[in-house]
Design goal:
With about 250 residues, chain A is mainly α. Chain A is about 65% helix and about 0% strand. Chain A folds into 2 domains: about 30-175 and about 185-190, no CATH class; about 200-254, no CATH class. Chain A has helices spanning about 30-60, 65-75, 75-85, 90-105, 105-115, 120-130, 135-145, 150-175, 190-200, 205-225, 230-245; strands at about 20-25, 25. In chain B, α4 runs antiparallel to α5 (about 90-110). The chains are: A mainly alpha (about 250), B mainly alpha (about 110). At the A-B interface, α1, α2, α3, α4 and α5 of A face α1, α2, α3, α4 and α5 of B.
Chain lengths: ~250, ~110
């Protein structure tokens, strides 16, 4: 329970770091760790957020609504989808319904990290879930799986990603036209590159490799069948189910 | 304009509930070992499910179609990104390599 520990001498066991550096009640070392974890995500979110802001402007969305979507919804794919649906004249119910379908995969991510967080307070878990994205979820699963359950660091990572996403969207809306062709800089590849960098460290076991292969194949098949909005959710279901059927070697079971 | 804020409020609600509910309800619940194992495989499965359409399908509008040719910039740029991710396990290095490869391919192509 490091997140809300009052300043007091540390137990002799962890004398490695000075105990007096605190930011209010939060240990500064946790915040630094969270920021360090967030750096690659910040690098990836900046161009995607800019692209979102630019597109929102082109479809006639005001800067406040553009920022509002990023701050409150904070789910990139659904935000891109919403602005394109709204510019096509879709109604509120259709946009909200499609958002529910696209974002329902978060229930899997939230459930996947939950069993490890029995030591966290409910508000800490709520804070983690509120700001959890595909990328931060993948990082959290890696950290939690190796036993690093520091709530302050995890929530700092989420906050850094959230602030970056909101700031980049606003910047894209305000001055996105400065970057005429983002593809020429490879900026559009930031998202796939992040997924690649997060996927490989998640594939340490044979069952995980099977889950990834089947999840990827199922998702592509669903897209080809025209069910692109549901592809991530049902692809993940199929992948994890296939992975469970694959036995890990005993030394790699976690 | 108030219509837009209604849309934002609705989108927020339908996104927030799936994000938070399992994290609030699940910890402390007893669950069979196989369910825990299944949940631990969600991360690789969902990442691959999000990534593979980006790499293998044409991103132009219209019905999705497989593109496994050299005209698929994303698939080509993914090769060095995969290599860096595999050798270094560095997310930062992977993102930089991937974006640089995509930019380079467009410069040459």
């Amino acid at each position: 329970m490091r997140f809300l520990r009052f300043a007091r001498p540390r137990r002799s066991g962890d004398a490695g770091q000075p105990s007096f550096i605190k930011l209010f009640f939060i240990e500064l070392s946790s915040v630094k760790k969270g920021v360090r974890w967030a750096l690659p995500v910040v690098l990836g979110y900046a161009p995607i957020g800019m692209a979102y802001g630019l597109l929102a402007r082109q479809t006639g969305l005001g800067v406040r609504a553009t920022l509002g979507l990023s701050l409150f919804v904070f789910a990139g794919a659904s935000q891109f989808m919403a602005i394109s649906m709204l510019s096509g004249g879709a109604g509120a119910a259709a946009v909200i319904g499609a958002t529910f379908i696209v974002n329902f995969r978060h229930v899997l991510m939230s459930a996947a990290v939950a069993p490890r967080l029995t030591s966290w307070r409910p508000w800490q878990r709520a804070a983690l879930g509120t700001m959890m994205t595909d990328e931060s979820f993948a990082l959290h699963s890696i950290h939690f799986a190796r036993g690093d359950l520091d709530p302050a660091a995890a929530i700092t990572l989420n906050l850094a990603a959230w602030v970056t996403w909101a700031a980049a969207g606003t910047a894209g809306h305000r001055l996105g036209a400065l970057i005429e062709r983002p593809e020429a800089w490879g900026l559009d590849f930031a998202l796939p590159a992040m997924f690649i960098g997060l996927l490989l460290p998640s594939c340490g076991r044979r069952s995980a490799v099977a889950a990834a292969l089947c999840g990827g194949a199922a998702s592509v098949a669903l897209c080809l069948l025209g069910a692109g909005n549901q592809a991530a959710f049902f692809g993940a279901l199929a992948g994890a189910t296939a992975g469970v059927c694959v036995k890990d070697r005993t030394e790699e079971a976690s | 304009m108030s219509g837009m804020w209604l849309v934002i409020a609705g989108m927020t609600l339908v996104t927030l509930v799936p994000r938070v509910t399992p994290l609030l309800l699940l910890p402390g619940k007893k669950m069979p070992e196989i369910v825990g194992r299944w949940l631990s495989l969600i991360a690789p499965a969902i990442l691959a499910a999000l990534l593979s359409p980006d790499l293998l399908l044409d991103r132009d509008s219209g019905p999705a179609a497989l593109n496994l040719s050299f005209s698929n910039t994303y698939l080509l740029a993914a090769v060095p990104a995969f290599l860096v991710a595999w050798r270094t396990r560095s997310l930062f290095g992977t993102v930089v390599t991937g974006m640089a490869a995509a930019a380079l391919l467009r410069l040459l192509g």
